[in-house]
Design a protein that fits this description.
This protein has 233 residues and is mainly β. It contains three helices and ten strands, in the order E-E-H-E-H-H-E-E-E-E-E-E-E.
Length: 233
């Protein structure tokens, strides 16, 4: 299984404290959540990444990681409104996540991919849903919240993404990138993760990253009605 090495990243918890991690992060959601227990306090650091330019993106390493390759023509349940971004749930770096959310192109789903119980990544345009939070109502039953991590970042005009210490108030050009994790109520093998970008004014970008990971059997997932849907489907 491929891994990314995330080197000295300052993350900002919801209580305002800063923490730093220096570790290998597995592409599987299960391994990522286990790494939270090993975080330790440290002095404030920053990391700078650069978004791939539009002209050279097709030749860049970042673009290769984000490309569909053989998955480019795959649709979830053969629905043209639900393209599959990846048949896995990779951990995206700051620059990768920002590039996907800010430049989704034609890779965004305009319809909720319901009932997905295998490893998959979707780019979802929540403005096409009845309510932005309806991405949580995916016909997969009940999930337990399993934690969240917020990274404060700064994005300049040249496409450079810098991880910054949690400021008291975000300024224009600064954002919060939130990764939220869930574990299914019926089996710990089935997990979900969302990646959401919020600007300095608190406005959440409509395009989000939605990922599923299942190391068990799809039939082990017991489905019960979900309460987050604003409308019956």
């Amino acid at each position: 299984m491929a891994e990314y090495l995330i080197d000295q990243v300052t993350v900002c918890d919801s209580d305002g404290s800063d923490q730093e991690r220096h570790e290998h992060i597995s592409l599987d959601v299960a391994d990522i959540t286990e790494s939270f227990e090993r975080l330790s306090p440290s002095p404030k650091k920053s990391r700078t990444e650069k978004l791939p330019s539009k002209k050279s993106a097709s030749q860049s390493d970042s673009c290769k990681k984000l490309s569909f390759q053989d998955e480019s023509e795959q649709l979830y349940k053969e629905d043209p409104q639900c393209p599959i971004f990846s048949n896995s749930a990779p951990f995206f770096s700051l620059s990768e996540a920002c590039n996907i959310i800010l430049n989704p192109g034609d890779k965004a789903c305009t319809k909720m991919p319901r009932g997905c119980r295998r490893a998959s990544t979707f780019i979802l345009d929540t403005s096409c849903l009845d309510h932005p939070n309806d991405y949580k109502a995916d016909d997969n039953g009940s999930f337990r919240h399993h934690g969240a991590k917020v990274e404060c970042i700064e994005l300049d005009d040249d496409g450079e993404v810098t991880c910054i210490a949690d400021p008291k108030m975000l300024r224009p050009g600064q954002y919060k990138l939130s990764r939220t994790y869930w574990v299914h109520s019926s089996t710990k093998d089935y997990k979900k993760r969302s990646v959401i970008l919020e600007d300095h004014s608190g406005e959440v970008y409509p395009v989000i990253i939605l990922q599923y990971s299942n190391t068990g059997k799809e039939e082990d997932v017991k489905v019960e009605p979900h309460q987050n849907s604003k409308k019956s489907h």
